[in-house]
Batch of 2 targets.
Target 1
Amino acid sequence: MCGIVGYVGPNSTSEVLIAGLARLEYRGYDSAGIAILDSEHEIDVRKRSGKLKELRELLKDSPIKQGNTGIGHTRWATHGGPTDENAHPHLSEDGSVALIHNGIIENFAELREELAGAEFKSDTDTEVVAVLLGRELAQTGDLETAFRNIVKRLHGTFTLLAFATAEPGKIVAARHHSPLVIGLGEGENFLGSDVAAFVEYTRRAIAVEEDSIAVITPDSVQVTDFDGNTVATEEFAVAWDPAAADKGGWPSFMAKEISEQPEAVANTVRGRIKDGLVEIPELAALGDDYLQNINRIIVLACGTAAYAGQVGRYAIEKWARVPVEIELSHEFRYRDPIVDENTLVISISQSGETMDTFLAVSYAKELGLKTVSVCNTQAATIPRESDAAIYTHAGPEVAVASTKAFMAQVVALQLFALHLGRVRGVLADSDHRRAVTQLEALPDKVQQAVESQEQIQQLAHWMADTRSVLFLGRHVGFPVALEGALKLKEIAYIHAEGFAAGELKHGPIALIDHGQPVFVLVPSPRTSPTMHSKVVSNIQEIRSRGARVIAIVETGDTAVLPYADEVIRVPLADPLFEPLLHIIPMQWFALELSTAKGLDVDQPRNLAKSVTVE
Ligand code: F6R
């Protein structure tokens, strides 16, 4: 899950690399490093454990030499702890090759044994590849040939970037189950784990196909397969605005991204409503005949994306009348699922690179199933592997904790449900139009919910010492409770659990003790009176056992007032849209509590944004 950037061209290579790493830091931030081939054809390396700021400090004290070829890396440690020695780039024994790597080389131990006499400076699998490449280059005398030969010997997952002292102005790169994109400039070219690596410099890009090798110089780009056969490439325009990947005056990316949710909703809906009904042009690739005959949907996703899937399930089952199962991607591959040709698989992934989800989608394809990807990242691996892609248009999400992507994923699934209901002829026009009206009204309502920040800030302040928080929800509120708990665990390092409110009496109520904070998502008394009264009873049950209740209710609901310690109000919405409003105070709560505890909101410990290992 490391971030990778490469540059060949006349600009300040170190600046380009550091700017790229700053945008890629969300992929990993255990350590960072850059290597530049200087004008005397020597490789200069600076690398440091810790966040990118440590490397910046090092570069201030010990400036790196300039040159027109460079690679940079931000690490999420797998083999070897996050130390200076283990940070990338790594060099070959004779210092003639610099190399960086994202992924895991599974046969590194065998390769290491084979490299008799080599003195390794790190514990990484990557250094083994650097040494191997150095030795192969010494034999073949040609970087591309040497690189091709060694890449074929590697097992596992990798994106590799390397350059050699003998061939200035050239970077070779390979990908196998790990992302790689090329940025096309004028007299300069770039490589990156994703377009964020170079979006500041060029919006023209090429997604490198699986199992390909790319070779870039300032004036040329060549892509081949591992055997050297040319692979056709397609240029695409990067839709992300570079400014969208900056904090824009907010104290953290997460705060900015929570506040961007109204636009995330509006942009995801835009262009998908025709004459008052939802039509998703991207689904044409599947054909209406196929959609009409779907008998089951399996949603594959991890973490927050899986919770978005759980919320979306209610919409698909209600509006399209197709049974839906949500399966964690990493579990799906290890069983023998009962499927047939009418089973549709929908994967959900913000990054489009999550290895567990990618492998689950590949497995679904092996089973002969059609696949739809709900994804936020243009030209990522998972949408490109799928039969159809519904892109969410949330814009770049940089904070590790997902917020606006969750919101856009839920909206995309609702759009999908409405499209499918229409195509299958099971959704009344009036219900469809009502749902569309609700979707169109959402951005304003989401904005009102975003404005709850101040109230939550105060709440988080008096709860800064809290050691455990519970979240309760019913129906669509249940996955939202799970998501609220996940946010808190991730960025405030607090024990948190979400429960279906009805499940409480089957065990978890034993956790309630004097002062235990419990967030309760209260359904609307107007549209869901029965569920509302059940949840109010749940509140009374926990309150009488000492819980401190924070109720999230719709404006005008007074029934909970006598039993809640704190009431957070959100605007009125139909039940299936409530999750999009209820989640916002919980996102703020996690952020504010993390801030109150003095933690790094955007880069929580042990995590990386894009989980490209299994
Ligand atoms: C939580 C979070 C993770 C991701 C999960 C899947 O805030 O961000 O749980 O949702 O790792 O990532 P994507 O959506 O990129 O597949």
Target 2
Amino acid sequence: MRDRLQTAETVADSDDFIDHETVSVSVLVVGAGAAGARAAIALADAGVEPLVIGKSDHGDAHTTWAAGGINAALGSLDPEDDWTVHAADTLDEGHYINDPEAVELTAKHMPDRIRELADWGMPFDRTEDGKINQRYFGAQSFRRTCFVGDRTGEAMLDTLVAKARDMDIPYRDNVMVTRLLTDGERVAGAMGFDMESGEFVLFRSDHVVLAAGGSSALYERHSSREDENNADGPALALGAGARLMDIEFVQFHPTGMVGARYGEEWDGRLVTEAVRGEGGRLINADGERFMEKYSPDQMELDARDVVARAIAQEIREGRGTDNGGVYLDISHRDDQYITDRLPSMYERFQSLGVDITEEPMEVAPTAHYSMGGVDIDFATGETGVPGLYAVGETVAGVHGANRLGGNSLAETVAIGKLVGEHVAEVVDDPAPPVTDSQRALAQREFHALADLADSDGQVTARELLADLGDILWEHAGILRDEASLREGLAELDALRARTADLSIDGDRTSRDFEFAVDLSFSLPIAEAMLRGALERTESRGAHYRTDYPDTDGDWRRNIVVSEEPTGLDLRTRGVAEPSPEVQDAVDTGYELDYHHLE
Ligand code: MEZ
């Protein structure tokens, strides 16, 4: 397996020059989901032409899978809501290790971002008097989640992509970045390959914005497609010298589809939180509405970590279905209401022979989101490595120990705009030239990739990724403890050793080759997850240690990870305090009253 550590000094002169395409741009945006698109729009608005690159077809990024909504304190139905309460809810459910600046910027800017999306044509659901409608979502004090049925992410990305098209922002699809170009001091572009032709590409740019998603697809059960959220964003940043933060915090969405019932291809796929926001009830195999035991006040609309743990406990204690899930039932609501508010859930289950207006769905928790990621300054997106910025799920900070549903789409547009604006201010060279040493670094990467493609061992990367998924699910899953985390690390070492025996048939357009690159991203991030979870000797939000079940005030700290010549280095850092106005909202103690739904 290729070495992930590389500096200018270690570049060997090679006789065999590998042909490649060179693309030189003022700003390279890696990732074509909502965060990348919104950053690119801000850049173009400021007169800077970025290039946006993505691994999929144009307009088909993971954003399309965020279903139930996007948060903004508009107060359409609950006029008491305002941005300070949104910030307070986000901090409270993030268990106060969020970056307060990140939270406040997101909450404060969201009402404008929603109005702007509406102006750009996003077809938000409206109230009878024409306001943007808002639904309940878990652990939020007021109805704050704006939505387009249960296709909110898709509608939002369509809107952003159409806007980017109107502005003639160049996109390039089906490119995989394998490494950032860096001389050890600053980032100068990215290297990768065209997934359709297999041709290598050197992107030369003095400003690279990473918007490449998170890491939750490393887990065996997850809610992403197989080429999404496989840790490329954080791993690329780590490899270029940036720090990661809070990597041990992985969100398990309570309601993923149960493969044993619906077919393995559906296993873990998201059943939107909007089902619970619209009144969906969770029932175990004994017919009990079990959230009454775990959270009598907030019921199914408690935070995702609480609901996911409750479902896992019901299943573990033998009250799950034969297929290993529990039931989620919305059939008590009117048929028309269900088809209006949850059209995509209705259609998907209908296609599988299940009429959700009549019968329940079977669900179980699924890895859904990475609260952890690149450690950035939120007003600028700066990572601490000159020339490298990051935004969206690739970064840590807004969500702390547990994310509120609807806050990830919010972060993409609120922070994406700010990052794009900042980068636009510092851009100087529209298309910088490639130096000899940069060319040599690129050659080294292309040689390493060509060697990787020619690996003729016995094991495929797909098998190793599946084994890695089992290790993480088993040892760094919903419940963790020291012995199991240590076992996970030992198993990860053994898996790493097996990467020496990879089998790829030389074809750089094959999925095998892409999986092998994914594996190189996954390994350091999986190690950081396991080691961070071991280091954090407390329970907080989505990180639940059965051997340390309480939250420990002394652990109100972030774990920051860097890659050093000796391996990953983990340190802790204290958390800043919120502003006085947000602290006031925290102290007021707003809370969702579930019974409003009934
Ligand atoms: O923010 C999310 O994760 C989201 C909107 C998911 C969902 O359940 O619909």
